[in-house]
Amino acid sequence: MKNSLIFFMFPVFLFCNFLQMKDLQGNSRVRNDKLLEAKDQIVYLFFKVEKNNSGVEKIVLEDKKIMEGRLKSKPSFDRNSAKTGDFIISLNDANGKEIVKQIVGDPLNPELERFDEEGMSRNKVSLQNAEFSVRYSHSEEIKVVRVEKVTTDGSQLLFTQKL
Asked: Its domain of life (predicted)?
């Protein structure tokens, strides 16, 4: 009786073992590789901002580059940390739903550090034109970029463009 039980149980264990190996080597591995390829890209957007004589700012998307790689951390967005003059970059899908949001410090009034005899000091410099860039993890959903400027009254839309 004991031998017949072993004789019937051995093929069952063997069969179950082959089923598990089949699942491991199946199509799921191919699908995971394709997902990893899509996620391992970084998109860089390069902008130029110019302030005309009347003080109106004009933003132009100069270039878009997609590079292989992965962001180590996702940029966090905290509206309370934005100061007047900073830019809020919103990356949206085709329906206008926000996917990614980032804050860029005011590129026309950067804060520069200076070292002298008294130590380190920070000075604001006023520029008529400047360049800035944004990077994010590539996503097929992102179709539109919006740039808003933080003002004392809220925010002002400066730029919208389809990607």
From this structure: Bacteria
